[in-house]
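Assemble and predict.
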Amino acid sequence: MTEQAQDENKLIAQRRAKLTDLREKGVAFPNDFRRNTVAGELLAEYSEKTPEELEALGIRVCVAGRLMSRRVMGKASFAHLQDMSGRIQLFVQRDNLPEGVYPDFKKAWDVGDILGAEGQVFKTKTGELSIRCDSIRLLTKSLRPLPEKYHGLTDQEQRYRQRYVDLIMNETTRETFRIRTRMVQYIRNFLNDRDFLEVETPMMQAVPGGAAARPFTTKHNALDMDLFLRIAPELYLKRLVVGGFEKVYEINRNFRNEGLSTRHNPEFTMLEFYEAYTDYQDLMNLTEEMLRGMAEEVLGSTTIHYQGESYDFGSPFIRMTVKEAILKYRPDITEADLDDLDRARTMAENLEIPLKESYGLGKVQIEIFEKVAEHRLMNPTFITAYPTEVSPLARRNDDNPFVTDRFEFFVGGREIANGFSELNDAEDQAERFQQQLNERAAGDDEAMHFDADYLRALEHGLPPTAGEGIGIDRLVMLFTDSPSIRDVLLFPHMRAE
RNA sequence: GGGCCGUUAGCUCAGCUGGUAGAGCAGGGGACUCUUAAUCCCUUGGUCGAAGGUUCGAAUCCUUCACGGCCCA
């Protein structure tokens, strides 16, 4: 038995028999039907017209799409055809069609089939815009039954595994992915308007860099060489700034070899952009402008409703440092507690945070921040002054080299973006890479690799630059009120069936 | 990784303290020329996620596994 045969059933067998009949009669999968409009266009153009006006206009149209419902009343039927733009009702009458077509429509064709129809636009007695068909054809036989018309497809596993069925059945799914595309288009327009250059950098890298994460490995056979799927494009984009592309961005996939959750998929989409002669403050301003504008344009509102909460993208975004955030949410902790390694470790242990011996003060502070503050950052918030220890690619602050000119951006308790003034001191970068190697040797397999070519690029001179990464999937979750990252990925990663 | 929940017809779901399975929709047959979850009459359809175990008897109880969902780390 073939794999395919395992889920065959009577319904499929009946449809296969109908397809066999079609093959015997001639071309079973014709491709000569041409439509001249779509459902949404008809509805937009003629919904407001009266039946009399439509009769006087006498508009003839050709539409095509999937048969989603059929109500047979003897010698006449109503049906709904769904195309990319929406649904239009068909009125199909035996005596308005060539001999023999109507019985096929009733018996040989099934809900789910792809049809082409031609006729005049009119309104039914109940006022629904419809097409009175005088020609109708089967264009593609569907062999598998669709889910039930009322409840549709609700099983989440099937919605993810068989996204094509989910898209056929669920308008909210279709809308989620349209919004996703509009968001990405908004970003492209926003950055293009500001003279950023969109580029593509390697997905397969000999040295994985730009983030602290475990990479996927692969092998190039001809070169007999191990390669890593990229965890970030960062180091390549900054090489381009060295090369003189002073404003660049890339929107593309990153791959991280981590567990799956409602917020993690092994491949996910990231926007990264870099602009020379700006700093992280400029970047925060740009981010705020972009996200506010995106909400207005894509959702028509600066208030985002997510899982019962509301987030305000219209007011100025909150800005505070890592330490301020900790002190705000834990008034019992003092600044002095955070500035001393021993006292900070005690604080962390009281909070039941597991610490490694190798953690310095900066890492301990961040662990405390993540435990007590991060999940409480609901409205759009920039957190700044990240410790240098946890920011190996960011520029040190001029007044306090313990921290960097870096921010992360949070909404709804979730990290959405990460940006900083870039470290363009090649010698400092070399030391930071060395420190990462030490951490790797100490057992941290997420520590960064030493990238000698990147250092060589920095030695040519990276202009003062700021750069940022924005997680597109999490942003889309927020904008589409989706509880799981799988809801915003067309084909989320699943275990084998 | 841990806890809880789920997996029954193509889909959405019932199935009680164990007695070998049901509905609606879809499908098949019939009636019906303004319906829209069309309606009315008749009707087909199941490896109850998988494998073990307990029992005279398991969809139901137990164990393990698979997949998914939610929460936690």
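Residues 1-6 of chain A have pLDDT under 50 and may be disordered.
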